[in-house]
Amino acid sequence: MIKFLDLHKINLPYQEALHHKMQEVIDKGWFILGEEVKMFEKSFANYCGMKHCIGVGNGLDAMVLIFRAYIQLGILKKGDEIIVPANTYIASILAILQADLIPVLVEPDSKTYNIDPDLIVEKITNKTKGILVVHLYGQLADMDKLNAIGKEHNLLLVEDAAQAQGLTFRGNNTKAFSFYPGKNLGSLGDAGAITTDDDTLAEVLFAMRNYGSEKKYYNEIIGVNSRLDELQAAFLNVKLPNLETENNRRRQIAKRYISEIKNDKIVLPFCGDFAKHVFHLFVVRTENREHLHEYLKENSIETLIHYPIPPHKQNALAEWNNLSFPITEKIHREVLSLPISPVLTDDEVSKVIEVLNRY
Ligand SMILES: *Cc1c(COP(=O)(O)O)cnc(C)c1O
After folding, report:
1. Which of 93, 182, 236, 350 has a 20 to 30 A CA-CA distance from 154?
2. Domains in the chain, ordered, with CATH?
3. Is 137 left (phi over 0), alpha (psi -120 to 50) or beta?
């Protein structure tokens, strides 16, 4: 069986270093906001070319905290509208709701599946204050156009980079990352981070993730407990140096899939420039998805669906269920994610290609 994602195999090369780090943290006996968190924040900020990195509990919290910090600073206020892609993982939308802001959904470009910049302007009202950009599946959204729209309409841009660790971003917008175990840089539990160039925002965020406190037992603002765990930070310190190599391996596999899969029934992902994609997922489309999924399973290839139901059709967002986003809905009906990970072997890649070409 070719697994969709073999986390055991992915972490195997790091096993010894991870054990060593774990022992180190246990021996030190400092488990909250210690040296490992500081070191990771410094390394990740450097790696991203940003001034600050704030380690937080997970990717969702990273986004919620960014919005709440902007509210704290008076740059956003409750009830402001934030443009967000309709075609995203629900976390992007939940983050806006949890910060008491109003998500305004916009359809994706049918080639890249990322938000279509040309459809944004018609959604802008006098309450619109920001855009939450998502780099879906690891592909850079159309940042030239998005940054220009932001500038022209005085909108705050925030980026959901949960699927895009290691991507070369455009511009210094504040970004949210998740290090959920299956992400390109994955921890061994929940973890997340924010990167920003804004000193004031960083100061608020450092306090907000830790009960609103900079000095222990002195609370300056109303905060939450969403600290990057010391042990997870230690694991991330072990894995970060290899992220670039692992992303390049993902690109290599994607290049082979794109050039060697030849089947009229399968729509391959659009990738104009491999430098603008870190292939967190390799997503194809087909009219009869369940059939292809079953066929691949019979041929010992595991695939997943990202995602089966769009956010506006979820029970949790019942008041939106009657809205219509045809491009988003079509994508959700047709997508299927092929195995792609740095530990997939050349033979396994060949097998996936061969089986798909026979379909
Ligand atoms: C994984 C993911 C998140 C959330 O990350 P968590 O760490 O699980 O909270 C947010 N947005 C997108 C697009 C994601 O893929």
Report:
1. 93
2. 7-105+114-241 (3.40.640.10), 242-357 (3.90.1150.10)
3. left
- For ligand 1, whether the C-beta of 343 sits within 6 Å is no
Ligand 1, atom 6, residue with closest C-alpha: 59
Using CA atoms, how far apart are residues 44 and 207, in angstroms rounded to an integer? 19
Which of 129, 175, 183, 239 is the catalytic position?
183
Ligand 1 mean position, distance from CA 63 (Å): 9
Q: Name the closest-CA residue to atom 4, ligand 1.
A: 59
Residue 91 near ligand 1, beta carbon < 6 Å: yes
d(CA 357, ligand 1 centre) in Å? 32
- Is 134 touching ligand 1 by the criterion CB < 6 Å? yes
Angle at alpha carbon of residue 58, lines to 181 and 339, rounded to 5° = 30
183 catalytically annotated: yes
pLDDT in tens, the chain (359 residues): 999 999 999 999 999 999 999 999 999 999 999 999 999 999 999 999 999 999 999 999 999 999 999 999 999 999 999 999 999 999 999 999 999 999 999 999 999 999 999 999 999 999 999 999 999 999 999 999 999 999 999 999 999 999 999 999 999 999 999 999 999 999 999 999 999 999 999 999 999 999 999 888 899 999 999 999 999 999 999 999 999 999 999 999 999 999 999 999 999 999 989 999 999 999 999 999 999 999 999 999 999 999 999 999 999 999 999 999 999 999 999 999 999 999 999 999 999 999 999 99
The DSSP call for residue 184 is S
Q: How many Cβ atoms sit within 10 Å of the Cβ of residue 359?
A: 14
**Ligand 1 in contact with 226 (CB < 6 A)?**
no
CB of 60 within 6 A of ligand 1: the answer is yes
By residue count, the chain amounts to 359
Distances (CA, A) of 91 to 63, 134, 252, 321, 355: 9, 11, 29, 17, 34
Atom number of ligand 1 nearest to Cα 58 = 7
pTM for this entry: 0.97
Whether the Cβ atoms of residue 51 and residue 45 lie closer than 8 Å to each other: yes
